[in-house]
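help with this:

***
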Amino acid sequence: MSNAFNRVTLIVCDSLGIGEMPDAAEYGDAGSDTLGHILASRKVNIPNLQKLGLCNIRDLALPSVLEPIGCYGKAALASSGKDTTTGHWEMAGIITKTPFPTYPDGFPSYIMEAFEKAINTKTLGNKAASGTEIIDELGQEHIKTGYPIVYTSADSVFQIAAHEEVIAINQLYSMCELAREILRGKDEVGRVIARPFIGTPGKFVRTERRHDYAIMPPPNTLLDQLYEAKLDTVCIGKISSIYCDRGVTKEVKAKNNMSLMDRTIDALKEDSKGIIFTNLVDFDMMFGHRNDVVGYAKALEEFDERLTETLELMRQDDLLIISADHGCDPTDISTDHTREYVPIIAYGKNANKGVNLGLRNSLADIGQTIAENFNLKLSAGESFLSQIN
């Protein structure tokens, strides 16, 4: 069987949920609706996403179109949890039954004591906080004492922030490696993250030398199988780190949505066969977690604008899939992720148009579709390739 498409571009709009799942209340997320609430907040101009079928998935403040050029549907998260690692692993065919631990009240003393002993110094922080806010709050004390800043978020993460002129970058990375070894068993967080910054009090800026130390995913992910089949796996943004760099033929770093789209467009201009896999992190990090509805809406409009060039660049044998990994409703009280369905849009110049993919039982359906296209098979998910091809 020949491939229906020679290349698939998978863009994950990090946190762009499309309404609460039936078990949302169990996660404290009853009524969550990231996309719905953003579109209801003001007039949001996203003509490309409308044309692709985003507003055909369900009733939204923006009207559906009569003849969408893409196929559209939504997927439930079959895994337990609502975080980046869980969503992306599931997309690649791995269902997580036990959610990764989170620490909304900070890390327990036995973890912090073991960490401080390992790095031979005290720490600051140890609470759930925004990364920019905590360096504004504790950056000056960090410079004065030399103690690293430890914090977490709604995600399953242990983050260490340090000024590059106070703690050298390699030393910060070493601290993260020590934390990664401590955080095992029931405390095995999804990621340990180095968060270096520079500047002076009131003008601190995080640098691009962030580094993630994730958990090694189980074997035979979508990326593993594509790699073994000698296909290209171009991973843009934080994708490579989510899978611990495994199954990756090319890692491309970028710092925000617009530079991530720049790199995605660059990759589309190159001759490759396989997958281009991008995570647009700003939706979650800059707007969802900060309850910034206006910023989220503007970021959606900016992404939509970049889709004009993306769609024009696609070859006849290209497929574009746009989805999300969880929700993060910026209109709710908390700044946490939200347990929501995620949208699925699939578009190709030679693909079927206007097909309703319906409600998918798992994000793994996305991975299984890509796998089937390349004559591979994942252990989870139902392909929708026959519906779009």
The longest strand covers residues 191-198. The radius of gyration is 20 Å. The chain has two domains: 7-98+216-388, 109-214.
